[in-house]
Design a protein that fits this description.
4-stranded mixed beta sheet, Transcriptional regulator, AbiEi antitoxin, Type IV TA system, alpha+beta, Endonuclease, Chain A, 15 strands, single chain, 3-stranded antiparallel beta sheet, 13 helices, 333 residues
Length: 333
Amino acid sequence: MRLPHLRPRGLNSACGQPAREPAGDQDVGMSARIPLPDSLGPNFRVTLGAAMGVGRGRLAGSDLTRPFWGVRALGSGTSIRELAASYLPRMSPLALFSHVTAAQLWDIPLPLRLQGALPLHVAVPDPRRAPEGRDVIGHRLQLRRPDLQRISGLCVTSLERTVLDLATLLDDEELLGAIDNILWRRRRPQIRATIPTITAALASTTARRGRTRFLELLPLASPRSDSSPETAFRLRFIRAGFPDPIPNKDVFDAQGRFLAMPDLQFPLFRMAFDYEGDHHRTDPGQWRKDLRRVPLLQDANWHHTRLSAADLADPHYILARTRRVLLERGWTP
């Protein structure tokens, strides 16, 4: 997982003020031979460029794009970070990126329907007027200082606040996956949430939409879940009334030798589950590990189940089979 660069909390600078960076060398066409003033930076307002003597012809140069109304940008960036940076010249000093845009900047997994870089979600403190414009969704939020964070030079809602705001956009499995992700043990401590910090953010926000669902899901969250499919199956097992599945815990045999670390397991009943994405098929190293792991578990009297995207789409067979094997191994509902 790629994780963002972080600047510490408690910044004195305004969120909407763009960091100035050198424009760098550009491959330019005939209409872009006149160098731009270095102080403009890579993204700038047309009015500022004109005030600094940049002519209309230069503003129409082939090396400049028009990502948002009244803005010019060097290059044609399409990543979420590039597009967010190109919006900075239009942002008010108190504005920040929120909701889906903040989630993408934090590398929080989102469902496919929400993965596009545009539109950008931009928020301001209530009662200020929410931003408007092409490819922009504006929000007015009740914000407190801990809700603000700066990553990669961009002001965003904090991890905790971002996931709280996503509650109205995600279903239960997606929302629990987002909570698991910000708790993820492999995130650097500076960009990792904790149950206490999430609880504090929840207590301080006045938002009501999605709050009940969030409170129901938070006790089920785990810092040990490594993927959204793992989280989805864990929630389905819990809601089916099965024992709580343990994510990503080492399994040893009777002699203390390491066997595997299944995605999910019912240790009391020696049942293990692994979700196999496409990389299990295409990665030779992973494929060899899979071939070795299953017989090792079976030799130690573990029942192993391989899960796939098809089981996510239609879980009925897997849930019925899991229930049957649990009963065979001594589980009492």
